[in-house]
Amino acid sequence: MTKSPLTLYLAAPRGFCAGVDRAIKIVEMALSKWGAPVYVRHEIVHNKYVVDALRDQGAVFVEELDECPDDRPVIFSAHGVPKAVPAAAAKREMIYVDATCPLVSKVHIEAERHHANGLQMVMIGHAGHPETVGTMGQLPEGEVILVETADDVASIAPRDPNKLAFITQTTLSVDDTADVVAALNARFPAIIGPHKEDICYATTNRQEAVKAMATKTKAMLVIGAPNSSNSKRLVEVGAKAGCSYAQLVQRAADIDWRALEGIDSIGITAGASAPEVLINEVIDAFKDRYDVTEEVIETAVENVEFKVPRVLRTPA
Fold first, then answer.
1. Strand order in 120-124's β-sheet?
2. Mean pLDDT, rounded, for 196-202
């Protein structure tokens, strides 16, 4: 049977970012240094395939520190944790390694600096997301006000409207966040923003690649987990940029082939916590069904690398 022709537009950059790469490496190096089991508070990154692979190597994933024994190392996920968590680990004399992405840590430092200068923080983020919980937990209760949308800005009641600063979750939609920032500036003209945008380079780059890809095709698949903020934002960005069919899939088995009937081109990208092996799995699934031509849509080149903590670079 003759296969129908199909152009696959492959976004570049896509998939793993430097923070995710570092976090996974931290778990692997901890297992190598201390042996199994090593405990990890929360999924190290939001991807089932990655988490399952590390679990197979001896990582034990828990949601809270009190689920960890005192005598085994614990790793804090790439999303960051409230200050109370490492404090509790230190009190229990536990070995702990912080895998918080350095770009998230930058936001934590920013929040503490503004707090030290007497400013109350407004955080643009998603309620309940581990990164938001971790960032808000850097400061005392009531010092961080959370807003999710531009509409939320009208209803907040800060202590002093002239003593405010804002920070953002690093994995948000660049365009949606710009709307919230505009609303904050309009209502609170004295509000102080970050020196450099909090949304991380990898989130921004992946969104720009999706926008470029959306001009070439009406269908797009984003490979990523349903609890991955940056992956879900890629779907939204694709839809907003003109893709009439933009869907999130975890693996090739999740592709809705019937919805793609009659298409002659499709865009493929992946969230920052999706490994290349899953991207290749999806590409191979298309090659099984279509006569595929691949075209790379490259909008940026990434060469960022973050060092792992010193404790892992020294012998046990």
1. 144-147, 120-124, 164-168
2. 90
What's the structural domain count of the chain? 3
User: Around Cβ 314, how many Cβ atoms within 10 Å?
Assistant: 8
Q: In this predicted structure, what is the pLDDT of residue 316? A: 65
Residue 8 confidence (pLDDT): 98
Q: Which of 152, 187, 222 is the endpoint of a domain?
A: 187
Q: Residue ranges for the binding site?
A: 17, 46, 79, 101, 129, 170, 200, 228-230, 273
Residue 312 maps to a domain: no
The range of the structural domain enclosing residue 151 comes to: 102-187
Which phi and psi angles does 179 have, rounded to 5°?
-65, -40
What CATH number does the domain containing 134 carry? 3.40.1010.20
Question: What is the C-alpha to C-alpha distance for residues 52 and 60, in angstroms, rounded to an integer?
Answer: 10
CATH number at residue 83: 3.40.50.11270
Annotated binding site for dimethylallyl diphosphate: 46, 79, 129, 228-230, 273
Tell me the catalytic residues.
Answer: 131
- Tell me the per-residue pLDDT of 147-183, one tens digit each, with 9 for 90 and over: 999 999 999 999 999 999 999 999 999 999 999 999 9
